[in-house]
Amino acid sequence: MFLQNLMLIAVDEGLATCPQEAWAMYPATMEGFLGIPADRMLFCGVAIGVEDPGDPANRTRSDRAHFSEWLRHHR
Questions:
Q1: Which residue, 19, 45, 52, 70, has most beta carbons within 10 Å?
Q2: Where does residue 42 rank: exposed (0-12), middle (13-18), buried (19+ CB within 10 A)?
Q3: pTM exceeds 0.70, yes or no
Q4: Residue 30 · residue 49 · CB < 8 Å
C-alpha cells in the first residue's frame, strides 16, 4: 500500500511512475550497487519521472486475458 500511495501522490504532482518488482530477482547485483547489508533485501523499486508520450516504449501494450478468464463474480 505504501508503494501504491507513493505512486498516486506522484501522479497527483504530474509525474509518471513505473513499479519494478524485478529487482528482487537480482539481489547480489543490487546489494553491491546500493551497499545493502546482508541482513536486508531490496524487494522492489519505483521509477518516477516525466512521461514522454511520444516515445515508442510508452505506447507498448501487452495482451491481457479477458476478465472472464480470471474473474468470478458471486452474488
A1: 45
A2: middle
A3: no
A4: no
Helix (H, G, I), strand (E, B) or coil at 14: coil
Which alpha helices (DSSP H) does 1-75 contain, by range? 2-12, 27-34
pLDDT tens per residue, range 4-33? 999 999 999 999 999 988 777 777 787 888
Element holding 19 (H helix, E strand): strand 16-20
Question: How many Å apart are CA 53 and CA 64, to the nearest integer?
Answer: 21
Burial of 23 (0-12, 13-18, 19+ CB in 10 A): middle
The phi and psi torsions of 38 (rounded to 5 degrees) equal: -60, -25
